[in-house]
Amino acid sequence: MANPYRELFTAPGSRGFVLAGMIARMPISMTGIGLITMLAQLKGGYGLAGAVAATFALATAFCAPQVSRLVDRFGQGRVLPVSALLGGGALLMLLLCTRLQAPHWTLFLFAALAGCMPSMSAMVRARWTEVYRGQPQLRTAYALESVLDEVCFIVGPPLSVGLCVVAFPEAGPLASVLLLAIGVTAFVLQRGTEPPVHPHQAHHQGSIIGSVDVLLLLSLMVAMGVIVGVVDVVSVAFAQQQGQPAAASIVLSVYAIGSCLAGLAFGALRSKLPLPRLFLYGGVATAVTTLPLLLASNILGLSLAVFVAGLFFAPTLIVAMALVERIVPPARLTEGLTWLVTGLSIGVAIGAAGSGWLVDTFGARSGFWLAIAAGAVVLGAAVQSYRQQR
Question: Major facilitator superfamily (MFS) profile domain spans which residues (predicted)?
């Protein structure tokens, strides 16, 4: 039986842009936690560190879709170097201000400007779309990208924290800047696979966020991000409550492994079911699998519950990306993909903050109620999206 993932890379230039894109997307997973670790070491607390990191995250959520709109209008080769230079340069200035003990407002200013970094996962998906538009290989490519996103967020944070602790406090964010520069440079130099700029029509002016179909997909992605944020925070609190704080890493690894395995398996399938129906099934499964989280009474039970929940995360994400490729015009594809990636990031932040409050107020397991509420939103968005598109 042919390996569908190996078949993907028969396209000329595909290996190059995937490798460059992987390097260039690492800073998104490394920068926030790197800033927290750096500032906590140098400033002696987590209040300022968390606020600066939150500023970076919010700025990224706002700026990334705007950068992608410019990419759709002017092309990756013209916009990405400017975006990376602005975002990476601002991050360097933040490190310099920290080292020179500049006023705190400068940290927030440059953290906001650093949010201009491009959404490289959307850029890579846009190249895959141009290569395999309308072909079954495109779903496999999206599956691969979802798994690579997971790998990025598994490897990036511990790498950044380790550099800050072992080398020097600024090492993690500095490595992010270097990876961004290397990755984006290698990516834009590969002109042969760069998507062409599609002509914009008069009715395509403004942001696609006003589209009902896109809003439904975005709502689902935010809710899925909330579930991820809840699992991250509550797993740590639950493990501490059980007297096994180190076991939190096992729980989180099991969740990521479940998602990766399911994503790879789903991408290898050649399902004949229409995308809206697959999306509905994924939304229902995602919602239902949040319920066992409340039943976990020990680390093993929680690990099994998050493994099952993770099995439906990547497939639902893959179908959402495939749907946005079908919904939005080619001239707005990068912006559409970026909104979904951004929605996921916003959801993670909401889930982490909300579950953290619940844990502090009502205990570790109470945080899972937020995941169940998010599951209900996922279900509602999936059902409504199916009705819109069938």
Answer: 213-390
Average pLDDT over residues 161-187: 90
Which CATH entry fits the domain spanning 13-194: 1.25.40.10, 1.20.1250.20, 1.10.1200.10, 3.40.630.30? Answer: 1.20.1250.20
Q: pLDDT-based confidence at 182, cuts 50/70/90?
A: very high
Q: Are 113 and 82 in contact (CB under 8 A)?
A: no
- The candidate with the shortest Cα–Cα distance to 102, out of 165, 155, 39, 147, is 39
C-beta pairs of 273-278 under 8 Å, 24+ apart in sequence: 274/390, 275/319, 275/322, 275/323, 275/326, 275/389, 276/323, 276/385, 276/386, 276/389, 276/390, 277/386, 277/390, 278/315, 278/319
SS3 205: coil
Residues 6 or more apart from 370 whose CB is under 8 A from it?
226, 230, 351, 354, 355, 358
Which of 61, 54, 69, 65 has the alpha carbon at shortest distance from 108?
Answer: 54
3-state class of 182 per DSSP?
Answer: helix
Neighbours of 135 (CB within 10 A): 10
Cα distances from 6 to residues 9, 10, 18, 141, 259, in angstroms, run 6, 7, 13, 11, 20
**pLDDT classification of 356: cutoffs 50, 70, 90:** confident
- CA pair distance 17, 71, nearest whole angstrom: 16
Q: What is the mean pLDDT of the chain?
A: 84
